[in-house]
Write a sequence for this structure.
């Protein structure tokens, strides 16, 4: 008997939601297609308000540094937490307890790190000092693209590559006035990439 009651509750909830949605969308008046087209065009002309854009070059540079620091910090935190730390603890060695779990997390962290470093690289283009400091590291960041697969196979060289690249990005940020601190991402951030 519990199954039909659940189905009834779900059906009632859906019907109520559909009725409320239809009522909220309708105005009760009929509009000509000319007015509707004009209203639609007016709505499309309004820019999105959820993405503020800086107006001066100083604000653009400040936001570029802030975004760079946030993205590079998340990449550094993920690398240390799920790649370097387990590697030092011996979690990647054959026969180690929790090896599969550690390798899967390291692979996810590797993909996340690559994604955040590419975002940090794009952010750095907004600030001349950061762009100049990060330019030599572009090839190193691109080289990380295939390393998550190597991490899953237990390649220790991949761990060193991630760690070296992160340290170079931190150094470049510090030299450009944007010091990077490790920020460990949440599991949901890691899963989203």
């Amino acid at each position: 008997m519990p199954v039909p009651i659940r189905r009834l509750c779900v059906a009632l909830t859906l019907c109520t939601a559909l009725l409320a949605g239809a009522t909220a969308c309708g105005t009760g008046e009929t509009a000509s297609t000319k007015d509707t087209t004009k209203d639609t065009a007016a709505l499309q002309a309004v820019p999105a308000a959820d993405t503020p854009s800086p107006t001066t070059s100083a604000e653009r540079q400040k936001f570029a540094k802030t975004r760079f620091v946030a993205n590079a910090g998340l990449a550094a935190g993920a690398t240390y937490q799920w790649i370097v730390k387990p590697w030092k603890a011996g979690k990647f060695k054959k026969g180690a307890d929790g090896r599969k779990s550690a390798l899967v997390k390291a692979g996810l962290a590797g993909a996340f790190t690559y994604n955040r470093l590419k975002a940090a690289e794009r952010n750095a283009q907004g600030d001349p000092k950061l762009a100049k400091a990060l330019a030599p590291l572009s090839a190193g960041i691109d080289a990380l693209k295939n390393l998550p697969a190597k991490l899953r196979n237990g390649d220790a060289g991949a761990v060193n590559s991630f760690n070296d690249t992160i340290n170079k990005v931190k150094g470049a940020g510090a030299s450009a006035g944007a010091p990077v601190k490790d920020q460990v991402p949440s599991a949901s951030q890691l899963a989203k990439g």
User: Anything to note?
Assistant: Confidence is low (pLDDT under 50) at residues 29-49. The two ends are 44 Å apart (CA to CA).
